[in-house]
Amino acid sequence: MNIILLLGTLLVAALAAGHLANRFGVPHVVAYIIVGLIFGESGLQIFSGPILDAFSPVVYVALAMIGFMVGGELKHDVFKKYGAQFVGILFCEGLFAMALVSGLVWLWTDNPAVAILLGALSSATAPAATVDVLWEYRARGPLTTTILAIVALDDALSLCLYGFAFAFAEMSLTGVADFSSMLLGPLVEIFSSLALGCAVGFSLDMGLKFMRQEDDSLLLNLGGIFLGAGLAVYFGLSLIMVAMAIGVWLTNSHPHRNEKSFEAIKKFAPPIYTVFFVLVGARLRIDLLPQMGVIGLLYILGRTSGKWSGAYWGARLSSSPAVVRKYLGLALFSQAGVALGLALDIFQHFSQYGVAGHELGGIILNVIAATTVIVQIIGPPAVKTAIKMAGEIPETAR
């Protein structure tokens, strides 16, 4: 098929699948991912490698929009009121997941390098599918606010943990490692991403005050988001963090004036999100599931238990509301972009260290790719269950 015919087919198929999902009370995002599985590398293979690569700009745009919209939810008054709770929960859920995964894998494999790398990757949470479910059901409340904050901040924590784990694994293989440079790298990426996002957000905020027509404002907003995303890709920064910083700047600089920016992007975004999640499903490889073996099962067990227990104890220690303590862990299962990207980085880097390094990188990449298939399917329904049990879905959205 040509690209336009393929896009039209996907959108119609995704729409039909979404309506079918409604009948069974399943979030739309699961239906879109399943459509991707059918059309993608695990199904009809209409979406092959080259075609998926051709759609990379759509993926970047979708992630940028998601980051922008998440940033719009991170208002100053919310962080002033709940900031200490967010930080406490963030560190507990991330570190608990890393500790449990690392411990279980180390006991099974007796390989500390594999164990600590998988532990670090387990701390990452994919914001896209999680946030899409919150928007689909128009969720509002303390649990929803906490979920948005945690998935927004998780990338920064996982990058820092990854830097430490990477240096430790390299030392295990070679006997030499520079911990200072490996820890400095993630920090530079985080602060550079935030600085770029704030700079674009400041420029966008200055330009929006001269826009009188809604169409002009939409064009300027899209231009700013695309510019930030493009610069992030060009400089190798975190695209989501750049877009998130743009949203944070706009929502906190002139909240009343800039609220229209988020409303306009939200109306414009559904087709982009739909294609994005179809592409996510198209890249999932079901044939990798048997390869994850016991290590993959231990990874899922450790990550799920760590996220759940860490979220509970973090919420309890920070005196968060009861609904956050009880249900937040359910909403942190999704895993995709960041974990897969870092796993690929591990494979490419450690493969240069001979057979042992190549084997280590292969284990990490296979486990992350295989387990992503599972958590991407169970993650969105778990988010819906969490916000439903917390009573944060309006009657009109059920």
Model description:
The structure is a single chain. By secondary structure, the chain is an all-alpha fold. The chain has a single domain (9-46, 57-397), classed as Na+/H+ antiporter like fold, CATH 1.20.1530. It contains 17 helices and no strands. The chain has helices at residues 3-23, 28-39, 49-54, 56-73, 76-109, 112-122, 127-136, 142-174, 179-208, 214-235, 239-253, 255-268, 270-283, 289-317, 322-327, 337-350, 354-389. Helix 6 (112-122) packs antiparallel against helix 8. The longest helix has 36 residues, at 354-389. The two termini are 37 Å apart.
Shape: globular
**What structural class should be given to the helix and strand makeup?**
mainly alpha
Give the count of structural domains. Answer: 1
Q: Give the C-level CATH assignment.
A: Mainly Alpha
Second CATH tier, the architecture: Up-down Bundle
Fill in the keyword field for this structure:
mainly alpha; 17 helices; 398 residues; 0% strand; Na+/H+ antiporter like fold
Layout: helices, strands, pairs:
Blueprint: H1 3-23, H2 28-39, H3 49-54, H4 56-73, H5 76-109, H6 112-122, H7 127-136, H8 142-174, H9 179-208, H10 214-235, H11 239-253, H12 255-268, H13 270-283, H14 289-317, H15 322-327, H16 337-350, H17 354-389
Helix pairs in contact: 1-2, 1-13, 2-13, 2-17, 4-7, 4-8, 4-10, 4-11, 4-12, 4-13, 5-6, 5-8, 5-14, 6-8, 6-17, 7-8, 7-17, 8-9, 8-16, 9-10, 9-11, 10-11, 11-12, 14-17, 16-17
